[in-house]
């Protein structure tokens, strides 16, 4: 029978080099297991529904939905990689140094791509509301696909630069067996904070404030039937109801992003670390963002609710369903 000291070690058979477990009350550990497991399962399931819906139904192949598809893919993998965080509840990493580095590397790429995709979504929302007449020519399928590809490549490049020291020698910064540590130097930390927190948050806030101001003015214009004189003549200031509804939905996605990710990055900025025990609330909020996005779609988008119904009733397996119209007119989007 092991002694109490051995029971507190990650690797009791190596008492001289093993890390110690994080001792938490059993109720707290169980709560964290249940919470993270539930968030992981919901994140994977709901984002898979979004991926299947947009990929399968041709009517959903719009520029905006391609951005939502990219976000759903990154959120799906966030939920999948959350499984590895369950291993760290007791403070021990049992999968070795190589898996530790690979996990952190892909985790940073995925979360970074998610942040950059939110920026693209805010730009899409801005153009749709602030320049609706030029939107079809400015935001095309080709341009959106190129932007999404560049977004993922940019995330990969930045994460590679940030983590190059850790990739060069795995386990370099581990002080004992059972530890999974990634350390950034000052330059790498600056790149991480600038491109994946300060920069994106600034862009998102500025664009959504602008969208809100313009949307309110346009709604007032529609209600009062204001006519604006332009160079080409007299045109009525109108924004389709679907565009304003879509902007409201994308705005909700942006607000959810800010609420969920800001506490986590603020703790990182203050040097309090990202360990689960040190910032559990911010940590859970960080991952909760990935499950909130599809819930927002379900709340605001009729096409998502209808496509989910087709998936669960297996009608999606019928031939020709991919060409089925999920709404009677564009305005119901």
TrEMBL record:
Which protein, by its recorded name, is this? G-protein coupled receptors family 1 profile domain-containing protein
Show the GO cellular component annotation of the record. Answer: plasma membrane
Citing just one GO molecular function, the answer is:
trace-amine receptor activity
The secretion signal range is: none
Q: What is its main location?
A: membrane
Originating species: Nothobranchius furzeri
**Where does the protein end up?**
Cell membrane
Provide the membrane topology annotation: Multi-pass membrane protein
* InterPro entries registered for this protein in UniProt: GPCR_Rhodpsn (IPR000276), GPCR_Rhodpsn_7TM (IPR017452), TAAR (IPR050569)
Cite a single Pfam family from the UniProt record: 7tm_1
Which residues are in the G-protein coupled receptors family 1 profile domain? 46-297
